[in-house]
Amino acid sequence: SEQTENSSGSARSLEGENEGPEEHLIKSICSYQAQTQQGRAFAGLSAVELTQFLQTCQEHASSIDWPLVSRLLSSQLSSPTWQSSLRALYVIEALLEDEDLKEFFEEEQLDISQIRFHT
Fold this sequence. Notes:
Blueprint: E1 3-5, E2 11-13, H1 21-30, H2 32-37, H3 47-59, H4 66-77, H5 82-97, H6 99-107, H7 113-116
Antiparallel strand pairs: 1-2
Helix pairs in contact: 1-4, 4-5
């Protein structure tokens, strides 16, 4: 199982039962396997899914480990399934275009450009 270290220095699994909130959030929206298990076999994201995802990000922006989110999205971009990679691109685009999150990133002096192509 692949491990990643969050900003507090503790290691967390990218797969498995010990998922943190960031892993769960990204896996639930980007994972093509999760979508096919729910009976949906399309690569794109619905407007409802993106809206719910962005609302979650806005509500919890100050507690989200954004460098970890960047690494998780990067791993989705290199997913063996093109559908998961495409979904990750949709998520990245939505994060970069959301005005409320842009404002948060600027206030916190977070460089969100690393999320774009951190491969």
